[in-house]
Model the fold of this input.
Amino acid sequence: MYRRALKTVAAAALITSIMGTSVFADDLTTLKSQQQEAQQKVDDLTQQLAYLLSEIDNLEQDYIDFYEKVLSDIINHPDMTIDEAAEKHLREEFNDLTDEQLCNCMPGMMYADLNVRFHYRELAIRALVDSGLKVNTYGEGYNYIVCEHPENIIQHGSANSQQCLDNISQAKISLNVMPWFKKGAHDRVFNSCLNGAVCLTDSSSYLDEIFTDGKDILFYDLNMLKDYVRI
Done:
C-alpha cells in the first residue's frame, strides 16, 4: 500500500513538471528552438519517472517502514521540517551516521515531502468544500479527495504555468500549501499577490516577517487541519 502511494506521488510530481513546460516566443525560429528544448525536458522527465518507479518497486520493506515512520512523524507534527524529521529517524537507525552521510540521504526524502504536502492539501480542500465553499482545482488527483461534498470541487484538469497564472488572476482567493521547509516561501504566494488574488497559505518564519496576517495575506494553521481529520 505504501509503495503504491510513493509511486502515485512520484508520478504526480513529474507529471506536474511536464505540464508546466510552456513555450512562448516572438518569432518562428525561436519558437522551434524552444519547442525542441521543451520536448527534451519532457523526455528527460519521462525517463526520471521511469527510474523513480523502478526504484520504488525495488524498495525493501525496511526502507518502506523507514519512510512510513518519517511521514507519520511530520504528519503528526506539522511544525517539524523534513530535514529535522529525516535526521531524527536516520540517527535513530544509525548511531554513527556522519554529517556527510546525512546530507547524501536527504534527496531520498522527496517522497516524504511530497506525501505530506499532498496530505495537507487534501485536508485544506476538504475543510473548504465541506463548509460549503466552491473550490476550483487545476491539476490531477483531486477526484481522490474523500469529503462530504465532492460536488464543491470543480475540477478543470491539467494546466501549464501560464494558464495557472491566468486563472489566479481571475480568482479571489488562491490556496497554497507550503513545501516542508519553514523559513522560505513558495512562488505561488507571490504569484497570487501579483495577480490580484488573496493568498491563503500556511506560514513560515520568512512569510511572518514580510506579511501581516489579515492585511496582505491570510494564514491558516496546519495543526487545525491536522485536528480537522478527527472531527
